[in-house]
């Protein structure tokens, strides 16, 4: 039996005030989401342990987090100058377990272009979310480094890497969730 | 009508602070509100240097470039109809839109590294990210944009290295456009005098 990844639990672990902005001192609020995983196979596997994609489905009030690469589709003609960093991975031993924590901004901001002179922002209050859907990938083989490949080639290659697993859970009210007492928060007391 | 800062999205104050870092606190940098969408940057250079020279050239170029300083976690268009978190790319420069405007978006509160010629990880401070993207923008609006993606990155990294040399940072390998999340070698763009906000706090970007 080869490596096989399962998401055994998925929950919002708490919210956190980030460091003050250098210019105006404001502090954004982020959620920590814990993802418990289990390698049920008898060989080690590599798992992407950072957030690669994030979106919010408003009709179902579902936060969709992806620890995998999205399909880039066909290569655009006037591609932007954009270079994605390679995904970070961890290795999970045979029958091993791990918890991955990803941070998500409480206010999800997405830039978009319209007829304006500059980009605009669409903001979504994630305190409204009712569900989280998480997709991850794992593979018995590490992700190879190809430093000179194009962005499109890299993204396409990464979509082919590993096997995916998805889990969806309901979440309770987030508005009363306490702040995690990090060192930064303790200084405020 | 060359260089602008976005007022609708991101942090205009952070973009201003990083431009101020790039011109090494030259008091000739100014700004004026054009409308509720953008602030126009003006620049009358008093000292030469890679940073000052590039901002002067952008301010005096014919093309329109708009800068958006976005916080980590902001989703940006990826050019294929999808989005990616800005902190996974550091910065992005879009092709001119139907009105000839080049949009530059960069992340002002993430830690990233790139590689020097020996393959060692070196820091990529925020004003360096902005300078790199402004290099793409400069070449896009001045007809000097390289033909292939690899050459475009090499072109921007070569420009970036001139600014790195000016502020005493390790130089980047022009043949390696890749990088990652992390502090690299811990180097920061040194503060220059005058970079304070109203509260007397140092605003040195990337320090």
Secondary-structure element order of chain B, as H and E?
EHEEHEEEEEEEHHE
Total strand segments of chain B: 11
Find the biggest chain interface. A-B, 50 and 64 residues
Whole-number mean pLDDT of chain A: 88
Tell the overall outline of chain A: globular
Strand fraction of chain A equals: 35-45%
If strands are numbered along the chain, what order do they take across the biggest sheet of chain B?
2-3-1-4-8-7
Flag low-confidence runs of chain A.
183-189
List key phrases describing it.
heterodimer; A: 189 residues; mainly beta; 6-stranded mixed β-sheet; 3-stranded antiparallel β-sheet; 2 helices; globular; B: 207 residues; alpha+beta; 4 helices; 11 strands; 27% helix; 23% strand; disordered C terminus
Please characterize this protein's 3D structure:
Chain A has 189 residues and is mainly beta. Chain A is built from 2 helices and 12 strands, in the order βββββββββββαβα. In chain A, the strands form 3 sheets. In chain A, strands 3, 4, 5, 7, 11 and 12 form a 6-stranded mixed beta sheet that branches. In chain A, strands 1-2-8 form a 3-stranded antiparallel beta sheet, with no helix packed on it. In chain A, strands 9-10 form a two-stranded antiparallel sheet. The radius of gyration of chain A is 18 Å and the shape is globular. Chain B has 207 residues and is of the alpha+beta class. A 6-stranded mixed beta sheet of chain B has the order 2-3-1-4-8-7. In chain B, strands 10-9-11 form a 3-stranded antiparallel beta sheet, with no helix packed on it. In chain B, β9 and β10 form a beta hairpin. In chain B, α1 crosses α3 and α3 crosses α4. The C terminus of chain B is likely disordered. The interface between A and B is large, with 50 and 64 residues. β6 of chain A pairs antiparallel with β7 of chain B, so a sheet runs across the interface.
